[in-house]
Design brief:
42% of the residues lie in helices and 12% in strands. It is an alpha+beta fold. The chain has 6 domains: 113 residues, Zinc/RING finger domain, C3HC4 (zinc finger) (Herpes Virus-1), CATH 3.30.40.10; 54 residues, no CATH class; 45 residues, no CATH class; 181 residues, no CATH class; 77 residues, no CATH class; 47 residues. The strands form 3 sheets. Strands 5, 6, 7, 8, 9, 10, 11, 12 and 13 form a 9-stranded mixed beta sheet that branches. A hairpin with a 2-residue loop joins strand 12 and strand 13. Helix 10 runs antiparallel to helix 11, helix 12 packs across helix 14 and helix 22 packs across helix 23. The termini are far apart. The N terminus is likely disordered.
Length: 667
C-alpha cells in the first residue's frame, strides 16, 4: 500500500522524516503483536522473555541467509562449468602488482572471475567477458547473472575507452616457466606467441584494441575476415597437410556440411554434397562454354543470361564467366605439361605457352621488308599436345579395342596433315582498325592416324573418320595477309616450320591415362591448293609456261601428251633450283636460266606432299570432257584438220545442248 503512494523506493521501509510505526499484519500473530507492543510499551513484558523471542527471530533470519548464499554459490559454480574458459582466459593471480580487492573485482569477470577478456557491459552496468556472458545467456536464460535483471545479447555494449585503457595497462607475469618477464595485458598475446615451446598449442587470448564494438564475422570485409580467422586457418592447414594430403578445401567443406546437418538444414547440405561429388545442380563449365560459343554469345550477353536465369530460378544453372575461362584454359594449348627428348632446338622448354604474337621474334630494322599485318598463333608443339589430350578418350578406347590397355613399349606414331589456305575477304564493316590487308590466311593441322607397333605389326588405334571436317581441323596460325604475299607468308610461317623441323627428330613425353607415354610425329603437307603449293614451293604463278606443280612439263608438252606423266618435282630439288636461280653459277641469260630451273623463282619454305586438290581435279576434268564432247559432236576422228570456224560451231552446239538439256551455264 505504501509503495503505491511513495515517491522513493527507500521510503517503503524506512521514512526519512518520521519514526516508523510498526503494525501487526494479523491480530492472531503472537510474535508480531507482542513484538510490536513490546517495542512501544516496555512495561508489559519482562526484558528476558523479549530477548529470547528476538533471539529466535534472528536465528531464523541467519539460517535463511545461509541457504540463500549456498544457492548463489552453487549457481556460480554452474556458470563456471558452462563457460569453461580456464584455458583461454587469464587468472587474476597473474597480476604482477598486489592491487586492492575491490579493484581486482572491478577488472574481473563476474562469472568466471578471470581478468576481463573482450569485456562487455550490460544495461545494469555489470561487466563480463563476451564469451562467458553469451554462453550463460544461451544456457540459463536472458537475465544478468549478477542481479537477475533482464538482459539480451543485443543489449551488450563495449565499456568506455578509458576503462579499456586501464585494462590494457595492467602488468602481468608471464605464465611460461623460466620466463620472469612482466608484460602489459595489451601486449600479452604478442609476447606469448614469441615462445617457441607453445607453437601449435592453445594460447589464444583476445587482444582488445578498444574502439568500435566487435562486429559479427559475416558483416566484416574479406580482409578483416582473413585477419580474424588467421589462427584457425593455420590450424586447419596443419590438419589437412597431416591427415588429408593438403586438401584444405575438402576439410573446410566437410566441416560446413557437418554444421548444416547438425542444424537440420538438409536441403543446403544435399546441394553442397552434390557439388563436392562433382554432380552439382548446375551445368558443367565446359558445357556452358560450348553453349556460349555455339550460340555466338558475347561475354556480356552470356553474363546477362546467367544473371537472369539465376534471379528467376534461384539456382545457379549456368556457371559464371570466370568458371568458363578456367574451363577454356584446359581446352587451349599451353595447359598440359610435356617434355621432348632430346629437347627441341631453338624452342623454349616452357610448356605454359598460350596464344602468342605471330610477329614475335622478327628483327625490326629500316632495311627489312615492312610487315603490315596482325598475326596470332600457338606454338606448334603445345598445340599438338592439346590436340592429343582432347583425343585422350579415343586413344585409350582404341587401345582397349585391340586389347592393348597395358601397352608401354615404343612410341605412338602420329600422322599429322597440315593445311594452309586463304580465307578470302575479311574486311571490317565499319573500318576504324589498323591498316592491314583485308584478306586472311589460316594455317592448321589435323591428326589423321595414330599407330603403335605390337609384335612387329603396326596396329592403328585411331583414324580420323572425317578428315576434311572443320571439327577435327585445329587452327595453328591466323594472319591478316594476302596468300599471294610471299614475303609476309614467309616471315610469319617460318617459325612454325622451324618448330616442325625440330619435332621431326625428337620424341614427345606426355602423360596420358596416368602413364607417361612417348609420341613420334610424321608431318604430311597435303592440305594446300595449287595456288598455295606454288607459293610455298617457290614456283611461278598458275599462268606460267610450266603448267604443273608435280612435274616439269610445259603447256606444249602437256597438250601433246595427256596420259604419260610422272611426279618428278620434290622440295629438295626445288631448293637446289632456287640456289641456281639465285646465284646463276653458269652465267646464263634469263631465258636459259629459267629453262634450267623449270619455273622456280622464289625460295621454297614449306615442304608439301605432291597431290592435286579436289577443286582443281574437278576443273581439269571438266575442261578435258568439254573438249572431248566437242570432238565427238564434230566427229574429229573423221576430220582431224577441221577449220577454226567448224570448231566454233561444235562448241556452240555443245553449249546449246548443255543449256537446254542439262540446265548448265558453260563457262
Amino acid at each position: 500500500i505504501q509503495r503505491k503512494f511513495s515517491s522513493s523506493p527507500y521510503e517503503v521501509y524506512f521514512p526519512r522524516n518520521s519514526a516508523m510505526e510498526w503494525q501487526p499484519h494479523s491480530p492472531n500473530c503472537d510474535v508480531c503483536h507482542t513484538s510490536c507492543q513490546g517495542i512501544k510499551r516496555k512495561k508489559q513484558l519482562p526484558n528476558l522473555q523479549l530477548a529470547k523471542r528476538l533471539k529466535i527471530i534472528a536465528e531464523r533470519a541467519r539460517k535463511n541467509r545461509c541457504v540463500k548464499n549456498q544457492g548463489k554459490l552453487n549457481n556460480k559454480n554452474l556458470m563456471k562449468k558452462i563457460t569453461n574458459c580456464k584455458k583461454i582466459h587469464l587468472s587474476t593471480k597473474l597480476l604482477a602488482v598486489d592491487h586492492p580487492v575491490d579493484f581486482v573485482k572491478a577488472i574481473s569477470c563476474q562469472i568466471c572471475e578471470h581478468i576481463l577478456s573482450d569485456p562487455v557491459e550490460t544495461t545494469c552496468r555489470h561487466l563480463f567477458c563476451r564469451t562467458c556472458i553469451l554462453k550463460c545467456l544461451k544456457v540459463m536464460g536472458s537475465y544478468c547473472p549478477s542481479c537477475l535483471y533482464p538482459c539480451f545479447p543485443t543489449d551488450l555494449v563495449t565499456p568506455v575507452k578509458s576503462f579499456l585503457n586501464i585494462l590494457d595497462s595492467l602488468t602481468l607475469r608471464c605464465p611460461v616457466k623460466e620466463c620472469d618477464e612482466e608484460i602489459l595485458l595489451g601486449k600479452y598475446g604478442q609476447h606469448l606467441s614469441s615462445h617457441k615451446e607453445l607453437k601449435g598449442k592453445e594460447i589464444y587470448t583476445h587482444i582488445n584494441k578498444g574502439g568500435r564494438p566487435r562486429q559479427h564475422l559475416l558483416s566484416l570485409t574479406r580482409r578483416a575476415q582473413k585477419h580474424r580467422l588467421r589462427e584457425l586457418k593455420l590450424q586447419v592447414k596443419t590438419f589437412a597437410e597431416k591427415e588429408e594430403g593438403g586438401d584444405i578445401k575438402a576439410v573446410c567443406m566437410t566441416l560446413f556440411l557437418l554444421a548444416l546437418r547438425a542444424k537440420n538444414e538438409h536441403r543446403q547440405a544435399d546441394e553442397l554434397e552434390a557439388i563436392m561429388q562433382g554432380r552439382g545442380s548446375g551445368l558443367h563449365p565446359a558445357v556452358c562454354l560450348a553453349i556460349r560459343v555455339n550460340t555466338f554469345l558475347s561475354c556480356s550477353q552470356y553474363h546477362k543470361m546467367y544473371r537472369t536465369v539465376k534471379a528467376v530460378t534461384g539456382r545457379q544453372i549456368f556457371q559464371p564467366l570466370h568458371a568458363l575461362r578456367t574451363a577454356e584454359k584446359a581446352l587451349l594449348p599451353g595447359y598440359h605439361p610435356f617434355e621432348w627428348k632430346p629437347p627441341l632446338k631453338n624452342v623454349s622448354a616452357n610448356t605454359e605457352v598460350g596464344i602468342i604474337d605471330g610477329l614475335s621474334g622478327l628483327p625490326h630494322s629500316v632495311d627489312d621488308y615492312p610487315i603490315d599485318t596482325i598475326a596470332k598463333r600457338f606454338r606448334y608443339d603445345a598445340a599438338l599436345v592439346s590436340a592429343l589430350m582432347d583425343m585422350e578418350e579415343d586413344i585409350l578406347e582404341g587401345m582397349k579395342t585391340h586389347d592393348l590397355d597395358d601397352y608401354l613399349n615404343g612410341p605412338f606414331t602420329v600422322v599429322v596433315k597440315e593445311s594452309c589456305d586463304g580465307m578470302g575477304d575479311v574486311s571490317e564493316k565499319h573500318g576504324c582498325g589498323p591498316a592491314v590487308p583485308e584478306k586472311a590466311v589460316r594455317f592448321s593441322f589435323t591428326v589423321m592416324t595414330i599407330t603403335i607397333t605390337h609384335d612387329n605389326t603396326n596396329v592403328r588405334i585411331f583414324e580420323e573418320v572425317k578428315p576434311n571436317s572443320e571439327l577435327c581441323c585445329k587452327p595453328l596460325c591466323l594472319m591478316l595477309a594476302d596468300e599471294s604475299d610471299h614475303e609476309t607468308l614467309t616471315a610469319i610461317l617460318s617459325p612454325l616450320i622451324a618448330e616442325r623441323e625440330a619435332m621431326k627428330n625428337s620424341v614427345l613425353l606426355l602423360e596420358m591415362g596416368g602413364i607417361l607415354r612417348t609420341f613420334k610425329f610424321i608431318f604430311r603437307g597435303t592440305g594446300y591448293d595449287e595456288k598455295l603449293v606454288r607459293e610455298v614451293e617457290g614456283l611461278e604463278a598458275s599462268g606460267s609456261t610450266y603448267i604443273c606443280t608435280l612435274c616439269d612439263a610445259t603447256r606444249l608438252e602437256a597438250s601433246q601428251n595427256l596420259v604419260l606423266h610422272s611426279i618428278t618435282r620434290s622440295h629438295t630439288e626445288n631448293l637446289e633450283r632456287y640456289e641456281v636461280w639465285r646465284s646463276n653459277p653458269y652465267h646464263e641469260s634469263v631465258d636459259e636460266l629459267r629453262d634450267r630451273v623449270k619455273g622456280v623463282s622464289a625460295k621454297p619454305f614449306i615442304e608439301t606432299v605432291p597431290s592435286i586438290d579436289a577443286l582443281h581435279c574437278d576443273i581439269g576434268n571438266a575442261a578435258e570432257f568439254y573438249k572431248i564432247f566437242q570432238f565427238e559432236i564434230g566427229e574429229v576422228y573423221k576430220n582431224p584438220d577441221a577449220s577454226k570456224e567448224e570448231r566454233k560451231r561444235w562448241q556452240s552446239a555443245l553449249d546449246k545442248h548443255l543449256r537446254k538439256k542439262m540446265n548448265l551455264k558453260p563457262i
